[in-house]
Specification:
alpha/beta, 5 helices
Length: 185
């Protein structure tokens, strides 16, 4: 499971509760930051690192189109810099870890990632940072089909968003990973 650690420079007050709940249930947990290319990448990465517990799953930066309706011109570079800063922290904790050398994961929709690839020219996908694809083929609020193939280059796929799960309170996202071990630290 992944829990939002912070949104830019605003701490998610439920992160620690979600982390404790996941661990008590025997579920590996990781943290993510909702990234804001309009903010200082150094400030955002440092704030994230001050809050996140990086012991089970690789950190993730979540990049999505906000109210401006387009991908910011600096999103690719911003994501690359965020990943470099967080990867340095990962390597200081686990210098011999293969996954720490891979660094964090970038979560973005197929279209957002395509724009960032064009902006950065190669930092993402099979030859760069690992990519977690956010694509609800069935629509928001609808359970998708996890057996459909993932996009080429993605290591994980969020196939449903904001869905109800029987016996649980709240709304959830549903994801599938190509190789769960690649998500571990």
């Amino acid at each position: 499971a992944y829990a939002r650690t912070c949104d830019g420079l605003n701490e998610d007050k439920l992160y620690r509760l979600h982390t404790i709940g996941a661990r008590n249930a025997g579920v590996a947990i990781g943290g993510y930051q909702f990234g804001h290319p309009s903010m200082s990448v150094k400030d955002c990465a440092e704030f994230f690192l001050s809050l996140v517990s990086m012991v089970e799953l690789r950190p993730v930066v979540d990049l999505e189109t906000l109210s401006q309706g387009h991908v910011p011109d600096n999103a690719g570079e911003w994501a690359d810099q965020w990943c470099e800063l967080v990867k340095a922290a990962m390597l200081s904790l686990w210098p011999d870890s293969v996954n720490a050398r891979r660094g964090p994961i970038v979560y973005a929709s197929t279209s957002y990632m395509a724009v960032m690839r064009d902006q950065k020219r190669s930092a993402f996908g099979p030859t760069g940072w690992d990519w977690w694809d956010a694509e609800y083929r069935a629509g928001v609020g609808v359970h998708g089909d996890p057996t459909q193939p993932m996009r080429a280059g993605a290591i994980a796929w969020q196939y449903s968003g904001d869905v109800a799960i029987k016996g649980q309170v709240g709304l959830f996202d549903e994801d599938v990973a190509a190789d769960l071990d690649r998500l571990r630290v």
